[in-house]
Write a structure and sequence with these properties.
The protein is mainly β and about 170 residues long. The chain folds into two domains: about 90 residues, Elongation Factor Tu (Ef-tu), domain 3 (Beta Barrel), CATH 2.40.30; about 60 residues, SH3 type barrels, CATH 2.30.30.240. Strands 2-3-6-5-4-7 form a six-stranded antiparallel beta barrel. A six-stranded mixed β-sheet has the order 11-10-9-8-13-12, with no helix packed on it.
Length: about 170
């Protein structure tokens, strides 16, 4: 699963629909990361391949969000959404949409990446989700470099300059 970006927006996949819940159109949404629960509770719409749905309610049951979308009013309609990816559109210029203290690596798309000696490595082009940690794909003229998004590899970030300093993975 990867994120996509334009210069002003991030299309962030936050989870997928597991199955319908009940008879009134609610669905169970499995979130890819726990931190996305903060975003899901504050937004009013989501993109579900490729339709925009208004969020009526969000409540929690164990590890899943139970979400009711406007226009999905019965189990049959909800079942049609099963296994589809739920994404949100974030405006990269509006910090209010991202809760304070919440780090989203998708913010780094198009950031320039440098090693600890300030040598340019390339530009972040996508974020790849894995079970262990997110990975940023850094592209330059010759190659793609995959860098884990962990404290071990990410030394610093500068949002003003849109740049990141990283420790080189041993394989680079």
């Amino acid at each position: 699963m990867t994120s996509k970006s334009t210069s002003e927006h991030i299309l962030l996949p936050i989870g997928y629909i597991r199955k319908p819940h009940g008879l009134k159109g609610e669905v169970k949404v499995h979130l890819y990361r726990d931190k996305y629960s903060q975003i899901l509770e504050t937004i009013d719409s989501v993109l579900i391949e490729p339709t925009l749905y208004l969020v009526e309610t969000v409540r929690w049951q164990h590890d899943c969000a139970l979400v009711k979308f406007k226009g999905i009013d019965d189990a049959t309609s909800a079942d049609r959404l099963k296994t589809l990816i739920v994404s949100i559109k974030l405006d990269t210029n509006d910090d209010r949409l991202i809760p304070e203290g919440l780090f989203i690596p998708e913010q780094w798309i198009d950031y320039r990446v440098f090693d600890s000696k300030n040598n340019p490595l390339g530009t972040v082009k996508e974020v790849i989700y894995t079970k262990c940690n997110d990975v940023i794909s850094v592209i330059n003229e010759q190659e793609e470099i995959l860098i884990p998004v962990t404290e071990e590899y990410i030394i610093s970030e500068n949002h003003e300059n849109k740049s990141i300093i990283v420790k080189n993975p041993e394989y680079v």
